[in-house]
Amino acid sequence: MEARIILQIQIPWNPNRQSSRRPSLHLPRSFIRASSSTSQKPRSYKGPKPSTNLVADFISSNDDLARSLPIYVGGASLLAVLFNRTVSGIAPVADASSSQSRADLLALGLAVTNLLTGLVWLSIRPKSITPVNPEGVDCKVVDSDLPVSIVSELLWAWESLKVATCCKSLVIVYNGICLIQIGMVAESPQDKKRVIVNTDKLMQGSVYRGVMKSKAQSYLANLSLYPGRSELAFLPANTQAVILQPLGDKGIAVIGGNTIRGFTSSDQAWISSIGEKLDATLGRYFIDSAEGSRENY
Amino acid sequence: MSIRICNLPFNSSFAPQPRARISSRRSTRVFARTENDTQQQLNLSVLRFTFGIPGLDESYLPRWLGYGFGSLLLLNHFSASVPINEPQLRSEALGLSLAAFSIALPYIGKFLKGSVVEQRTLPEEGEQVFVISSNIGDSLKEDLAWATYVLLRNTSTIAVLVSIQGELCVRGYWNCPDQMSKAQLHDWFKKKVDEIGLADVKETLYFPQYEGSSASWDILPNGTRSLFVQPFVQDINEQQKMNGFLLVASTAGYAYSDKDRAWIGAMAEKFRG
User: Fold this and answer.
1) Judged by CB atoms within 8 Å, which residues 137-166 of B form the interface with A?
2) What global pTM score does this model have?
């Protein structure tokens, strides 16, 4: 694998550099260099700690209010300009003759800019979709023949997906074996226990074949619209979004989420990277174990 | 019925609605033409316009208008006849505060949900390096190579440094002396990291505006605007876990959103043991 991950990284150059003015944060500088160079334990960290940005925190937590703030500011200034005119007895006539009128016109122009910006911000508000709790049983089933290193890698993949995305279920099938079935799983109506993954049925189904043929990740953003949904019977019935990640050409990872369109494009990129890694690890293990069993004959 | 797989879930006006959810009544609209009949909220997307000049970002328009109108206001003030009456002063004060608010609007807009993140740019000077310590096993070297590659590809990182119990893996653009062999570079980085004392960091550090803070570590390339440090051990009781940290830097400001930081934390978990 070292041969493939090579030293030259082609990072795309983007000439669109945005340079905007930012207020700088002033922190007391307390950088002390310790003089001893032979100490074994790590030198303590004396650099600065990041300060909290109150504006950013306020806006992130009060998104709706912040979006409509320019509208209120613009509207209030419009009224204030008119009020100023009436109070001071000058007729509200919009001509540019006196400097009072000019100042008023400029203020009005700025108020209208604010109003329109507020309206634009309202129009680009992302739709908030509520997550749907998956119905099923919580389970954690890992194939018992796997070595500890593989199991820990699979569990690491599950933990990362659980923490960073809206994933609630994960099933990995490789070489015809269901390696791991973890998270929320559909409950079988007969015995109230988890639905076991029928790998033969899955691998003969159109979902699996389509993904294997295209060799690319497939993102079903709204699972209820998808006709092949019945082949993924092991997922909870109300799973909202599914990502099908092929692991090379021998396996598939089925990742179920609880929000429609809940996986962002960054999530998709990360999931395909993890899929490549898992394929490399699992592929090597299965080749080694196949060679090992062949040597025994 | 068409199913569109939407890679950008933030665009509310143009998301297709499934047939089952179409309601029979028309939604109220500000203007006649809309993209989607089933919107239940006011469709204000017609207000968005563009000059069509590539490279010109219209979200900065309030800032330019603020500067322009503010300077016109000042010009008006100084060219007026000297006894300026009070109503005019009030108007001008109102206008100047509106101009200041307009100038700040793009900055505020950056923190709203769904705002576009800046793209990274590559540093003009400096070269790419890729250094892995020779004291670690092959499988760990592979994991490190993969993890650093993925971090550079999937986030707007230009420089990444992973330290596992003192042994380093460094990749990307760094401000290091050239003409050094890999082993010498590794020791050089190790010395610098020890000087800063990064191995002792106990909690995650995120500097979204690195150039404004008082941190100035000379190993980072010029133009670094965001910095994120994720230590492995966060609990002093977990002594049996591997010690170390993961450092990523980017030339874009506010480069690491919550989701990016969650993924970087997941990468750090891999090496935690």
Assistant:
1) 141-142, 145-146, 149-150, 152-155, 158
2) 0.76
Which H, E and C letters describe chain B, residue by residue? CCCCCCCCCCCCCCCCCCHHHCCCCCCCCCCCCCCCCCCCCCCCHHHCCCCCCCCCCHHHHHHHHHHHHHHHHHHHHHHCCCCCCHHHHHHHHHHHHHHHHHHHHHHHHCCCCCCCCCCCCCCCCCCEEEEECCCCCHHHHHHHHHHHHHHHHHCCCCEEEEEECCEEEEEEECCCCCCCCHHHHHHHHHHHHHHHCHHHCCCCEEECCHHHCCCCCCCCCCCCCEEEEEECCCCCCCCCCCCEEEEEEECCCCCCCHHHHHHHHHHHHHHHC
Chain A contact set for B142 (CB, 8 A): 1-2
Residue ranges of chain B with per-residue pLDDT less than 50: 1-39
**pLDDT at position B241, please?**
65
pLDDT, residue A35, reads 42
What is the per-residue pLDDT for B100?
A: 94
Q: What is the pLDDT of residues B216-263, one digit of tens each?
A: 788 888 888 889 999 887 666 666 667 888 999 999 888 888 889 999
User: Which of B113, B145, B267 has its CB closest to that of A5?
Assistant: B145
In the chain, the amino acid numbered A1 is M
Q: How many residues does chain A have?
A: 297
User: Which residue, B245, B254, B227, B255, is CA-closest to B159?
Assistant: B227
**Per the CB < 8 Å rule, is B154 touching A273?**
yes
| CB-closest option in B65, B171, B206 to A113 | B65
The span from the CA of A18 to the CA of B223, in Å, is 13
Residue of chain A nearest B155, judged by CA positions: A266
The mean predicted confidence, pLDDT, of chain A is 81
